[in-house]
């Protein structure tokens, strides 16, 4: 064979090999890597599959805080290849998920009998591969309770504050006065220093004392003006009561969110929320009406509406009609009226912007 023919043959062979290499998928056998950017459903599917496949060697899974990659703990190093094949990073640890769950269940059972008040909770920490018991400060009784678990899987952490149940203050829901009487929440607001308040009707706050809501104590009456006006405020002193921009629509739908306090024009739609009759709507008929409440006195500057109300609705939220939306403008708090929600009636509200101005408050909006 001539030198020229040999060179031509080698060139043709090289081109064929290159063509085959280009045609083959270079990463056909390499699994996609699961991380924080992956579809949640894909991560969940991998977790379910590995939990079943690894059985007693499985030790939970998590997204690494530094790399974002899905990490799966295993107690047997020989199972690491199965984790990598699923697109995750394997980490060999001491305790299986079943072992940690068993230790936590044991603590749950002991707590039914007795647990020191200084122990604020316990949970499985899969990243540390431990069960963590939170103890207030360095309380000896709490530390002893955790140590009594008798497991090397348990560690304690210092807690600086005890947890507490939280509940929301929502417009239109019931409030009760320690001196007797039920009214409704108008709106949540705060001053420039961050102190929180509930706005409601003045003939309600005139009852004085401490006020409670659906989840417990709210705080004391901090201001009241009635008659002449019909507004008052309650200082939110409870750390468990959460101020919200919400108003309860009861059977009318999900809660609406207060976005501001732009005034609805005459003829415009408004709705009110109260703890007696729930969510009722109507239209604005006039501004700045003076109303004679007889023995209770005369109140000026009220807005007249066709929305109905009944006793107990007092102080509740009046807002713009949201239509098919969920965002509203605060209008005022229910003062009084005539008629009822069976035959219809007229209801007056105290405009909220006057209250905000008098007490130097801003609404809690969302």
From TrEMBL:
What GO molecular functions are on record for this protein?
Answer: serine-type endopeptidase activity
Give me the disulphide-bonded residues. Answer: 183-204, 271-281, 308-341
Its GO biological process annotations read: proteolysis
The entry's cellular-component GO terms read: extracellular region
Pfam annotation, one family:
Pro_Al_protease
Which InterPro entries does the entry mention?
Answer: Pept_S1_alpha_lytic, Pept_S1A_streptogrisin, Peptidase_S1_PA, Peptidase_S1_PA_chymotrypsin, Streptogrisin_prodomain, TAT_signal, TRYPSIN_HIS, TRYPSIN_SER
Any signal peptide, and if so, which residues? 1-23
Q: Which UniProt keywords apply?
A: Disulfide bond, Hydrolase, Protease, Serine protease, Signal, Zymogen
Residues forming the Peptidase S1A alpha-lytic prodomain domain are 95-153
Q: Which residues form the active site?
A: 203, 230, 314
Describe the family membership recorded for this protein in Swiss-Prot or TrEMBL: Belongs to the peptidase S1 family.
Full protein name: Streptogrisin C
To which species is this protein native? Answer: Actinokineospora iranica
Q: What is the lineage of its organism?
A: Bacteria, Bacillati, Actinomycetota, Actinomycetes, Pseudonocardiales
């Amino acid at each position: 064979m001539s030198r020229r023919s040999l060179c031509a043959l080698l060139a043709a062979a090289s081109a064929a090999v290159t063509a085959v290499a280009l045609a083959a998928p270079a990463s056909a056998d390499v699994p996609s890597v699961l991380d924080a950017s992956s579809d949640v459903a894909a991560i969940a599917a991998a977790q379910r599959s590995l939990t079943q496949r690894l059985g007693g060697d499985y030790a939970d899974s998590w997204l690494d805080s530094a790399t974002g990659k899905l990490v799966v703990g295993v107690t047997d190093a020989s199972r690491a290849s199965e984790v990598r094949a699923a697109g995750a990073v394997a980490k060999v640890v001491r305790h299986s998920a079943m072992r940690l769950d068993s230790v936590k269940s044991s603590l749950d059972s002991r707590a039914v009998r007795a647990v020191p008040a200084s122990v604020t909770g316990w949970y499985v920490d899969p990243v540390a591969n431990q069960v963590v018991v939170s103890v207030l400060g360095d309380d000896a009784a709490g530390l002893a309770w955790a140590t009594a678990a008798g497991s090397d899987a348990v560690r304690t952490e210092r807690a600086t504050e005890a947890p507490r149940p939280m509940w929301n203050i929502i417009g239109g829901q019931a409030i009760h006065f320690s001196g007797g009487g039920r009214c409704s929440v108008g709106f949540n607001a705060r001053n420039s220093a961050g102190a929180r308040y509930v706005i409601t009707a003045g003939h309600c706050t005139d009852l004085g004392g401490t006020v409670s809501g659906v989840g417990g104590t709210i705080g004391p009456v901090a201001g009241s003006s009635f008659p002449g006006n019909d507004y008052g405020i309650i200082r939110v002193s409870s750390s468990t009561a959460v101020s919200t921009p919400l108003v309860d629509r009861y059977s009318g739908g999900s809660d609406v969110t207060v976005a501001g306090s732009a005034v609805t024009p005459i003829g415009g739609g408004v709705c009110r929320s109260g703890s007696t009759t729930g969510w009722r709507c109507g239209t604005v008929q006039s501004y700045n009406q003076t109303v004679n409440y007889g023995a209770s006195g005369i109140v000026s500057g009220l807005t007249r509406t066709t929305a109905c109300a009944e006793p107990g609705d007092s102080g509740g939220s009046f807002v713009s009609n949201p239509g098919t939306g969920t965002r509203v403008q605060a209008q005022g708090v229910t003062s009084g009226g005539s008629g009822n929600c069976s035959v219809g009636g007229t209801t007056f509200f105290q405009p909220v912007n006057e209250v905000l101005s008098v007490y130097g408050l801003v609404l809690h909006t969302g």
